[in-house]
Design brief:
The complex is a heterodimer of chains A (271) and B (300). In chain A, 76% of the residues lie in helices and 0% in strands. Chain A has 13 helices and no strands. Chain B contains 10 helices and 13 strands. The chains are: A mainly alpha (271), B alpha/beta (300). Chain B: Keywords: ATP-binding, Nucleotide-binding, Transport.
């Protein structure tokens, strides 16, 4: 018998099996799909339905579909972050790093496998979230007489950028998990930052010029820049970064947190 | 058939802050036999095994598999099978999937998880989530992980802990069989009595230092031998033995003779015409020697 070797490929196969053999991924996916569908459907009904009759800020009808569909990322992005963070912190919590490192002692290989696996999983979450926002959103828009623009190349470019954003958010989750191996702490940080701290920072930073310059590098702003549309940018008038810059900023967050986490927790003694 | 390689520890030390968990451990564990790695809780057994397996970095020294560090093994799971005391399972995963995760990581055949579960007698529970397993079943699953790659070396931390009597008998046969095939088998325990029917060799550590190593029988070093004897006429029996020059003390059920052989005491009683109702040799057992070795006195 030839001796089996470990490699990035076996690490990815192992991490994929890990992800798919517990209930976490589909529980998160179901909640995300429901939440995104509810938000996208709600905003489509309100903005599309009120349409001409409403007073207050008007959103051009041609921008409305993308705004509705972008709820996939603008409210859905917390789910791939949680998926990535929990994929790492559960290893610390259940001490499963011991068998993991026994099977593949080269720890960088293991972390690379996890990162690649979670990038793919994040992209899949992106596809599910878009199916939810576009499925419900396009249906309601069509029902209230707004063209859902499903034939436009611009919409499908947006779909591709959204999937990339969700993949990167999942990788950021991996980085956060290695930085903060405590599962409870990681969950609290994800929820507090995404739902509270960052929205407030973005709002506060928009009042002065220089702080707005800095705030465009916040991960949520970078994500909106990459996707190209969101309820935040619709309200505040766009971000300064172009889409590929936003992508690079997100990728940098993922890479920097993962590399720091590799040295602070991943390489430590396992007990 | 995978063959064992010797485990070589040289000057292995680990400090946690100011506490020396393991100090300058040097020894070789040979293939073809079962070696018991003994010491009280907190003696440094698990830390030593974790350093051997590349999970904990030694402060100094090294531990290798025939000269190769764990992290440098080209195919770790087919070379070394290990099971550590900590329950390293995600409770939401089934036993089969738990093993599949690591079989894939090691590039093992798809049949490896079921084969390993079969060997440890868990096939009927393969699809049950591990969170519902009993302690004994978790021990077996840990062993299944160790056997996954059919390795030539087995390193097991407290493998008998939590097994029922039938399970103890089963693991004893399994480990002896694997050693007989030429594999290296190292098992740790804090109880000598738990492993004394399983091991050929013992390595005893206390407070992080090696205090004894050798064959199991080398522990049976008692020089104070006692004989317990009884007769209906107990006073006369004691008188006869005392007059032969032995130190005699009275027990609730007979007489205790210090530094004597049962045969000699039996002969004395026979010559004096005293019918005995009981005669037995008491030895200071292995367990007592073990406790002396690891006691507060420390080294020999």
């Amino acid at each position: 018998m030839s001796r089996p070797r470990t490699s990035v490929a076996t690490a990815i196969a192992s991490e994929t099996t890990k992800l798919l053999t517990t209930r976490l991924w589909w529980v998160l996916a179901v909640i995300m799909a429901g939440y995104v569908a509810l938000c996208a459907g709600g905003i489509a009904a309100i903005l599309g339905g009120l349409g001409s009759a409403a007073s207050g800020p008007q959103i051009p009808e041609a921008q409305l579909p993308l705004l509705v569909y972008s709820f996939a990322t603008s409210v859905g992005y917390v789910f791939p972050v949680l998926l990535g963070a929990l994929a790492v912190t559960s290893e610390f919590r259940f001490q499963s790093l011991t068998p993991t490192f026994l099977a593949i002692p080269r720890r960088g290989l293991v972390l690379t496998g996890k990162l690649v696996t979670l990038l793919v999983a994040g992209a899949a979450f992106g596809a599910i979230a878009l199916a939810a926002s576009m499925g419900v959103g396009a249906g309601i828009l069509a029902a209230v007489g707004v063209d859902p623009l499903l034939g436009e190349p611009e919409v499908w470019a947006f779909v591709g950028r959204s999937i990339l954003a969700m993949a990167l958010w999942s990788a950021i989750g991996v980085g956060l998990g290695t930085l903060v191996p405590s599962q409870v702490a990681a969950i609290v940080i994800v929820l507090a930052f995404t739902q509270f701290v960052e929205p407030l920072l973005r709002l506060g930073a928009s009042f002065t010029d220089w702080s707005a310059q800095v705030a465009q590098y916040l991960p949520g702003s970078a994500s909106d820049a990459l996707v190209g549309s969101s309820i935040y940018t619709a309200m505040s008038g766009g971000t300064g970064l172009v889409w590929w810059q936003g992508g690079l900023v997100l990728a940098a967050y993922a890479l920097v947190t993962t590399v720091i986490g590799f040295f602070t927790s991943w390489r430590r003694d396992v007990s | 058939m995978p063959t064992g390689v010797p485990l070589e520890f040289s000057g292995l030390s680990k400090r946690f802050g100011t506490v020396a968990a393991v100090s300058d451990l040097t020894l070789t564990v040979e293939p073809g036999q079962v070696t018991g790695f003994l010491g009280p809780n907190g003696a440094g057994k698990t830390t030593t095994l974790r350093m051997l397996l590349g999970l904990t970095r030694p402060t100094s020294g090294q531990a290798t598999f025939g000269g190769t560090a764990y992290s440098a093994l080209p195919s770790p799971l087919t070379t070394v099978g290990a099971s550590l005391e900590a329950a390293s399972f995600h409770p939401g995963r089934s036993a089969r999937n738990h093993l599949a995760v690591y079989a894939r990581a090691a590039g093992l055949p798809k049949t490896a998880p079921d084969a390993a579960l079969e060997r440890v007698g868990l096939s009927a529970y393969a699809n049950r989530r591990v969170g519902g397993y009993s302690l004994g079943m978790r021990q077996r699953l840990g062993l299944a992980f160790a056997l996954l790659g059919d390795p030539g070396v087995l390193v097991l931390d407290e493998p008998i802990n939590g097994l029922d009597p039938e399970g103890i008998k089963w693991i004893r046969l399994l480990l002896r069989g694997m050693a007989a095939e030429g594999r290296t088998v190292l098992i740790s325990s804090h109880l000598l009595s738990e492993v004394q029917q399983t091991v050929d060799e013992v390595v005893i550590i206390s407070h992080g230092s090696l205090v004894h190593r050798g064959e199991l029988s080398s522990l049976d070093v008692s020089d104070s031998k006692q004989v317990q004897v009884n007769a209906d006429d107990r006073d006369r029996l004691a008188e006869v033995i005392r007059s032969a020059g032995y130190e005699v003390s009275s027990l609730r059920s007979g007489v205790l003779v210090e530094n004597a052989e049962a045969g000699e005491i039996g002969r004395l009683a026979f010559e004096a015409g005293i019918p005995l109702t009981a005669l037995s040799q008491k030895r200071t057992g292995l367990e007592e020697s073990f406790l002396t070795l690891v006691g507060e006195e420390g080294a020999l």
